[in-house]
Amino acid sequence: YYRRSWSSESSDSVISSESCSNCYRVVLIGEHGVGKSSLANIFAGVHDSIDSDCEVLGEDTYERTLMVDGESATIILLDMWDNKREGEWIRDHCMQVGDAYLIVYSITDRASFEKASELRIQLRRARQKEDIPIILVGNKSDLVRCREVSVAEGRACAVVFDCKFIETSAAVQHNVKELFEGIVRQVRLRRDSKEK
Ligand code: GDP
Ligand code: MG
Asked: pLDDT at residue 165 above 80?
């Protein structure tokens, strides 16, 4: 693992080789408009009035240490999937660098759900031999009247794609903490089974 850090004087990101066994690089992917940045902002604690121990490592990279099941874990969250300014390479980059993925769709947008399946397939192709932790995230669960994808469909899709499933609402902050704790648990499960 490599840990990215910002030097205070310059805006260049520095890749140091400081090993970080409890650091996980988690990448948000999914159609534009499904709520990836909204989830990232909650993670970053933008809405917290009291504590904010989140470091912003760049406009679309956030780092935060959480306690999950009595053990701390540092998540480096990447929200650069929609960053077209950087060009298409950023998507290939995203597919390569994650230790774990949150594939997000909106429950109000069936096309985004279909896109999520496509992304799962792309990810499998890009990282063939790896067992990568993935959570399929149905966001905007607060918009009950606009629902186009049922909970059962989301769950069934996750079974087919061999990943976890959760519905969230960034708007009312429902299940967002659970989402980030969940991805930490998924990474740990694989780590622990490797150690045995
Ligand atoms: P991104 O393109 O995937 O990063 O999506 P954004 O985070 O920019 O969100 C797109 C739009 O959806 C914004 O107007 C958000 O306010 C809205 N949005 C995001 N999450 C939710 C949610 O859980 N519920 C509702 N009602 N709106 C949301
Ligand atoms: Mg965004």
From this structure: yes
